[in-house]
Amino acid sequence: MENTGPFAGPDAFSGATGLLFEQAMAQTRMAVCLTDPRQKDDPIVFCNRAFENLTGYGSDEIIGRNCRFLQGPHTDQKQVSKIREALKNQSVAVVELLNYRKDGSSFWNALHLGPIYDENGELKYFFGSQWDVSEIHLAQAEERNAKAMAREVSHRLKNVFAVIGAIVNITGRSMDAPEVSRKINQRVQALGRSYEPTLDDAFLGTIEVGQAVRAVLAPYDPEGGRIIYLGNGLRTEPNAISAIGLTLHELATNSIKYGALSNDTGTVEVEWRQDNDRHHRGSLVVCWRERGGPPVDGAPDEDNGTGFRIVDTLLDHLDGTLERKWEAEGLQAEIHFPIGRAG
């Protein structure tokens, strides 16, 4: 290893121990250096090949220098202070700081440093390992930017829904059709609620189903406990959320008029899962189960209303389906989407 051999100076390991150390340091991909706090300015007395590759310096440019030579104009001095404190207290420290290579390029360095003592318990060296975590920092920065953009989109989306609502209200009043405009606005608001809590992580390309389900249904169970949620972190593409939101809105309003939410004791279970049964293999399924409502005698008139026709049309566009059955205990419904839309 030329002059990256175990140590420069009289305190070098000797014999088999030194050879093993040298071979181990030569093979590891982690950049490693040792400094000697007994010498003036705690210079580097050993570095391995990975340290040279990481920094761009040769061993002859490294040995004898304090590690601060890797710092630059944008190195965070708070992190540097943590290093100084660890050296002063002979303690272990892990910090991330911006360092600079010989060619002037920067990299994020995950530095682990700690003391090494001799057989008498006397401080002999400080050990430092360096790991280039620049890609992790870049990914985190991209994630922060994506979330900031998602928040801006969320803000603008709320404004769009508000404008749509105002237009619907004005149109309804001008046509003397306030009930029609009210129903349209309820559906617009349901769409808005389905997207609002999920936009922050929409940059991932998918949206968590449970967040949308809870947001859409929250107004129909203001005290909590009437609607029971059964699901996990299953995700689906954003386009499917609009269908889920509108469908759950129609089911909830139907339940308030005719079903389990029309009295003080009924409950609704909402479950979402990935279904692999033989009838719907490869589907995202959202189940709606009502219990404790008034007696059911066939499908109520609302079954053939405008709301469910809108839902059926939207689901058909997304290759989905809505199956409804009126059992003795209440409405049982299932929404199905192709598995390509789940994740």
From TrEMBL:
Major enzyme class: transferase
Please report the stretch or stretches of sequence annotated as the PAS domain.
44-90
Q: Which Enzyme Commission number(s) are on file for it?
A: 2.7.13.3
Q: Which domain of life is it from?
A: Bacteria
Reaction(s) catalysed by this chain's protein: ATP + protein L-histidine = ADP + protein N-phospho-L-histidine
User: InterPro entries given for it?
Assistant: HATPase_C_sf, PAC, PAS, PAS-assoc_C, PAS-like_dom_sf, Sig_transdc_His_kinase_HWE
Q: Name one GO molecular function term.
A: protein histidine kinase activity
- List UniProt keywords, sorted A-Z: ATP-binding, Chromophore, Flavoprotein, FMN, Kinase, Nucleotide-binding, Phosphoprotein, Photoreceptor protein, Receptor, Sensory transduction, Transferase
Q: Can you tell me where the transmembrane regions are?
A: none
Q: What Pfam families does the annotation carry?
A: HWE_HK, PAS_9
Which intervals hold domain PAC?
Answer: 93-145
Name used for this protein in its record: histidine kinase
Native organism is: Aurantiacibacter luteus
